[in-house]
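Lab meeting, item 3. Inverse folding demo.
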């Protein structure tokens, strides 16, 4: 299996739940950051040796990763890291554009002033991060620190929150990690985020949706140049 060694070996005295949590977190990050190659086979025995763990916590971690769609079971081949083909990524960005555009529209009407202020504070944190790294990366972290997740959560629509915060979340992190790796994208993305927040602050849902859709399209324009692309068609607003 093609993966970097874990950051630390697991203490055999740790509880199984804690071990599974740690292994799942480490593998998840390795997959998202590309340290664990897409399509690579996951061998429980090898992971158990790497992490100094029994196979029980390894099996639990793999099960969780399957739930996140980062690992898939291949008939007669076992567990493998998900492979995001260009066609799959294209389809994913079409879904992202529609769902995140709608979440921005709804958030403009649902967010109160304190939530908008929190978004501005988040923008400032991200701006400092970009400055500290000379604009090389604008990789968004999970949960409340994630600009896109906050807007989706503020939409007030449970289906949007579920789809963007659970079903598609980790796959979208892989895509965003790829676009963020392009130096020129960092400051552009940050500027686009600022414009989106401005529209939300003005309670202009139509503008917020348009800007978010344009932002997702721009990210796709970057990502599609980084992967071999076959069977791609410009449709549903994702233009080349």
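The presenter then showed the designed sequence:
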């Amino acid at each position: 299996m093609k993966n970097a060694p874990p950051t630390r070996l697991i203490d055999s005295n740790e509880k199984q739940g804690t071990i599974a949590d740690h292994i799942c977190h480490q593998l998840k990050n390795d997959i998202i950051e590309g340290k664990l190659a897409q399509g690579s086979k996951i061998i429980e025995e090898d992971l158990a040796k790497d992490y100094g763990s029994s196979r029980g916590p390894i099996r639990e971690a793999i099960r969780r990763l399957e739930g996140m769609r980062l690992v898939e079971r291949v008939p007669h081949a076992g567990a493998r890291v998900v492979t995001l083909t260009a066609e799959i990524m294209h389809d994913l960005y079409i879904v992202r554009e529609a769902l995140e555009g709608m979440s921005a529209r709804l958030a403009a009407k649902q967010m109160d002033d304190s939530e908008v202020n929190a978004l501005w504070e988040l923008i400032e944190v991200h701006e400092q991060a970009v400055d500290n790294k000379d604009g090389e990366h604008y990789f968004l972290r999970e949960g409340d620190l994630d600009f896109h997740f906050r807007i989706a959560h503020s939409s007030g629509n449970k289906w949007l929150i579920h789809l963007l915060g659970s079903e598609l979340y980790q796959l979208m992190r892989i895509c965003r990690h790829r676009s963020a790796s392009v130096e020129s994208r960092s400051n552009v993305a940050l500027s686009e985020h600022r414009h989106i927040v401005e529209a939300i602050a003005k309670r202009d849902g139509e503008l917020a949706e348009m800007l978010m859709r344009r932002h997702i399209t721009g990210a796709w324009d970057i990502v599609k140049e980084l992967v071999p692309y076959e069977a791609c068609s410009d449709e549903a607003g994702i233009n080349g």
